[in-house]
Design a protein that fits this description.
There is one protein chain. The chain starts with 10 loop residues before the first helix and ends with a strand. The protein has about 160 residues and is an alpha+beta fold. The protein has a single domain, classed as 3-Layer(bab) Sandwich (minor pseudopilin epsh fold). The chain is built from 1 helix and 8 strands, in the order αββββββββ. The protein is elongated and about 95 Å long.
């Protein structure tokens, strides 16, 4: 009869291995959450800018002026439709968030000197007048998205596209 050498893991070795694994996992969790927050911001901002483009085509199709006011603290905006004479026709709130995952929210919006964007029947976005502090050349507004502790700021061009 031959006996095979069997090596058992001592309790001390097991405790050390589990401790090292725990330290590695504890270091990875914040990075994973940061990555998820970054993906939430990217997805939410893409969705928001897609909706802005949709509003622009809506203004041209309906041949009317539309005012867009982002809602701070959520991923939503108020959409107001106006007649050619400037009479308010309808107001609706569009919520872009879904129940599947917590999205990034809008934490700041500024279109100096207003708190909204306005699109006319030709698809032109009203240019800001007055103080334009913080705006880079070729932009009309600043919008900031936040998810967890991660924040990303975009500037909006007159074509309603994001600028870095």
């Amino acid at each position: 009869m031959t006996h095979r050498n069997r090596q058992a893991v001592s309790m001390l070795e097991l405790i050390i291995s589990v401790t090292i694994l725990g330290i590695i996992c504890a270091a990875a969790v914040p990075r994973l959450q940061e990555s998820i927050d970054g993906q939430n911001i990217e997805a939410s901002s893409r969705q928001f800018f897609t909706e802005l483009q949709h509003c622009r085509s809506l203004a041209m199709r309906e041949n009317r002026r539309i005012r867009i006011t982002p809602t701070i603290g959520s991923l939503a905006f108020q959409l107001r439709r106006y007649s050619s004479t400037g009479t308010l026709l309808s107001t609706e709130t569009l919520n872009l968030s879904s129940e599947d995952s917590p999205p990034a929210t809008i934490s700041f919006f500024s279109a100096p000197p207003k708190t909204h964007l306005e699109i006319n029947h030709r698809g032109e976005v009203s240019n800001p007048s007055g103080v334009t502090t913080g705006l880079i050349s070729g932009s009309i507004a600043i919008i900031r998205f936040q998810s967890g502790s991660r924040v990303r700021t975009f500037q909006i061009s007159p074509s309603l596209a994001p600028l870095p």
